[in-house]
Design a protein that fits this description.
This protein has one domain: Multidrug-efflux Transporter Regulator, Chain: A, Domain 2, CATH 1.10.1660. Strand 1 and strand 2 form a beta hairpin. By secondary structure, the protein is an all-alpha fold. The protein has a two-stranded antiparallel ribbon with strand order 1-2. Helices cover 67% and strands 3% of the residues.
Length: 134
């Protein structure tokens, strides 16, 4: 298939496919007139690339998966792919810890703000309620 057909079947653009080729991820054959020719294996590679990009992997991270897919038929079973998965999982776990800490701080601030507001707005005050920010 030509680049336009692969792009359509993969849900991407010809420009993106040329970029994947520049990165060494996609390997077209060239016919006698110089046109890129792709087979169904390259369609599978493009789908693998797009699914990995969608979950946050970078181009360098994707290379072991593509190599593994080409040699075994599955991009996730080779040692280099497993190592990347472990590293990415550790990265996500670290981000989750950070987000959990941020959430706790925000929750604490909100609780304090509501308690302060309740105390300020419910107690009798010589200041008119309209100027107390209740």
């Amino acid at each position: 298939m030509l680049i336009g057909e692969l792009a359509e079947r993969a849900g991407t653009s010809a420009r993106t496919l040329r970029y994947y080729e520049e990165q060494g991820l996609v390997r077209p054959r060239r016919d006698t007139n110089g046109y890129r020719q792709y087979d169904d294996a390259e369609l599978r590679v493009v789908h693998e690339i797009r699914s990995l990009l969608a979950v946050g992997f970078g181009m360098d991270d994707i290379k072991p998966f593509v190599e593994c897919l080409r040699t075994t038929g599955s991009g996730h079973v080779c040692p280099d792919s497993v190592a990347v998965l472990r590293r990415k999982l550790a990265e996500v776990d670290g981000l989750l810890e950070e987000l959990t800490d941020v959430r706790l701080r925000l929750h604490t601030q909100l609780t304090q703000a509501l308690a302060h507001r309740e105390t300020t707005c419910s107690s009798p005050s010589p200041t008119p309620p309209s100027t107390r920010s209740c």
